[in-house]
């Protein structure tokens, strides 16, 4: 194994070196000045760990059950559109890797393999992410297909009434290459994503046409009535919205700022986590994504109250560099690092990872 691949940062460099610049920019980029994107990472550096000693750590066990899904560790892959942008196989390779690692996969509504192909490749827990389309019949049909194919939960993304101003994509006039399609949707619905126009993002144009910006809390009942699957809201950053989510009967919330790709200047995801955790009943799972790049990061998010943590971009770095094996390497590195962190922290069980683990990182003078 090349020495650089001992960390996710090494895998990131390898992916950067081999992907076309406009694909790299689409994946890596955030919105606006990328303040939120940068801050997502920086927030982890504000926490120091408080290790306890003389604790038996001969068995560190990060296994858990999440909304009925058995996981070998509290880790999953965040929903991301178009995995075939970086690998000819795409989501089926990602699904096999997640299954082997005992991690969750949240497939995206804009997956480039069919929901059924992904389900057939998956050997572990699999959920489906949805954006709320103006055409509700399309949404209803996807929900039915997801149930029939054995998906275990629906994740409704609520931070995207429109797509953030992603300046890299605007500069590149980014369009999804015609060979890579959102195959679960009618081709007419996604045509705008493939239209390259100078100074515009195909994805933003497409979302402007198709996403319903009028969606509000009362509409959730429509989705609830159509499914027996647990419902997760993705993109919650405030205590106010967390309380509303509970009032509207959701089964879990996912604290996320969409990896800094939506509202630039939004709170770093890790900074939003405690207020959401404190606002919901203890039994409601709070999930987290945004900037997690190591087992230490995972442990910090868990200590702040996340039940499980998702990674976005790192899974695509792994997929770009080595297909299924690359994604598996990313997940396995995170597992190895988490177990290592739990051992050296003297916290061998997930339940031991609470706020007593954390102290503020001492600020450098000046
Ligand atoms: C290339 C890419 C595509 C994404 N597509 C979606 C999507 O289709 N639906 C969604 O809810 N979130 C999407 N996201 C956001 C991720 O689910 C997740 O919130 C974010 O990537 C987490 O941050 P991280 O990349 O720092 O781990 C996407 C992110 C990336 C990088
Ligand atoms: C219309 C698909 C948008 C996917 C994406 O880039 C994101 O959600 O960040």
From TrEMBL:
Keyword vocabulary terms for this entry: Flavoprotein, FMN, Oxidoreductase
Gene Ontology molecular-function annotations: FMN binding; oxidoreductase activity, acting on CH-OH group of donors
Classification via PROSITE patterns: FMN_HYDROXY_ACID_DH_1 (PS00557), FMN_HYDROXY_ACID_DH_2 (PS51349)
UniProt-annotated catalytic positions: 258 (proton acceptor)
Family annotation (CDD domains): alpha_hydroxyacid_oxid_FMN
Organism: Kitasatospora xanthocidica
Residue ranges constituting the FMN hydroxy acid dehydrogenase domain according to the UniProt record: 1-363
Residues given in the record as FMN binding sites: 79-81, 129, 157, 234, 256, 258, 289-293, 312-313
Keyword field contains Flavoprotein: yes
Pfam families associated with the record: FMN_dh
Signal peptide span: none
Taxonomic classification: Bacteria, Bacillati, Actinomycetota, Actinomycetes, Kitasatosporales
Cofactor or coenzyme needed: FMN
Name the UniProt record assigns to this protein: Alpha-hydroxy-acid oxidizing protein
SUPFAM superfamilies: FMN-linked oxidoreductases
Residues the entry annotates as binding glyoxylate: 131, 166, 261
Classification via InterPro entries: Aldolase_TIM (IPR013785), Alpha-hydoxy_acid_DH_FMN (IPR012133), FMN-dep_DH (IPR000262), FMN_HAD (IPR037396), FMN_hydac_DH_AS (IPR008259)
Family to which the UniProt record says this protein belongs: Belongs to the FMN-dependent alpha-hydroxy acid dehydrogenase family.
